[in-house]
Amino acid sequence: MSSCRTSRLSSSASNERDSVYIEIEKLVPVEIPADSAAIRALLECDKNGKVVLKWLDMANTKNVQLQFLLDSLGNLLTNFKMPPDTVYLPSKETSLSTNKKKVETITVEVERKLTKWQRFCIRFTTVILSVAGISLILFVRSKFRR
Question: Pick from 23, 30, 64, 122: CA 20 to 30 A from residue 102's CA?
Fold first, then answer.
């Protein structure tokens, strides 16, 4: 009788974090600094009255393409070619996303089934106790009758 008990319910709750790393590829605009170019030239007239280029000094950065033309009348025509001011470069961005999950565990205790041996012991003990009780009653009754 002391070994029998009712089933109990117990519950436990725990919080778990689920982390996800997200890697995003995107284009990032990068501005190119301003470039410049400079020309210094010495122009002279020759005997025929035509303009002649005596010496030329050009200074320009790597992003500038400088073109110029000197015609026979002495006109100097220049042309600067520059690439766009903004360049888009690929970039990877990693972000961490966490989600909280609430996990609830419910434990239910259930009595297990008895084995054949345990069932035999319970029945045998019941029979023995019944026989012992009846014999005790008969013994006490026979003693009081005399």
Answer: 23
Closest residue by Cα to residue 82 from 103, 65, 68: 65
Spatial separation of the C-alpha atoms in residues 59 and 79, rounded to whole Å: 14
* Separation between Cα atoms, residue 121 and residue 15, nearest integer Å: 47
- Helix, strand and coil percent figures for the chain, each rounded to 5: 20, 55, 25
Residue 123 CA to residue 103 CA, distance in Å, equals 45
Q: Alpha carbon 1 to chain centroid distance?
A: 57
- The structure's pTM equals 0.30
Do strands 76-81 and 65-70 pair parallel, antiparallel, or not at all (unpaired)?
Answer: antiparallel
Show me where the domains of the chain are located: 9-111, 112-146
User: What's the CA gap between 95 and 113, in Å, rounded?
Assistant: 54
The residues, any chain, with a CB within 8 Å of residue 103's CB and separated by 6 or more, are 13, 14, 15, 16
36-71 pLDDT, tens digit per residue, is 777 777 878 888 877 777 887 777 777 777 777 777
